[in-house]
């Protein structure tokens, strides 16, 4: 399981506007998990801005960012889709699709100007989104008596250890989320704090979204 960066999944899309030489560059982006969702988003933006001259796009998918595609949508080759893709890669993001819509203002920007404009427009959109670090955590289920609960909760606060909702019955079962490399140390600490009375069970690893 690998850590990776993506953007927050929200109901609406992120939208930004950049103007240069009377041309308008409108950027939309969204979190997507597969190529079908990416293509559907691109199609939806094209339908929404059907009167625009260009709707250029790029997306990156997969935990290893190994699925990448860009489209110049009529702009000179390499001046639109690739700069958008490079903006995504520069920010180390995956599972994201970006579409930059251009309304031509009547003044030609030239190849270099187009590359800079699409790159900047994409960067503005990415900057406006909330970035998440998808980080592997191992779940540690810790069953303790109420006698030791305050001690363990104090230890968790001191060490900034994340946890899911606890189960309360005759005793308490805490569901801790631990960086995999730290599970052994934290298990030992909890064992020592409870004089060996805690029942500790290792759970599965999972990816947790952390805002950055």
From TrEMBL:
Lineage: Bacteria, Bacillati, Bacillota, Negativicutes, Selenomonadales
Domain Impact N-terminal intervals: 21-123
Species of the source: Selenomonas ruminantium
GO terms classed as biological process: regulation of translational initiation
Protein name as catalogued: Uncharacterized protein, YigZ family
GO cellular component, one term: cytoplasm
Domain UPF0029: 142-197
UniProt family annotation: Belongs to the IMPACT family.
InterPro entries membership: EFG_III/V, Impact, Impact_N, Impact_N_sf, Impact_YigZ-like, Ribosomal_Su5_D2-typ_SF, UPF0029_Impact_C, UPF0029_Impact_CS
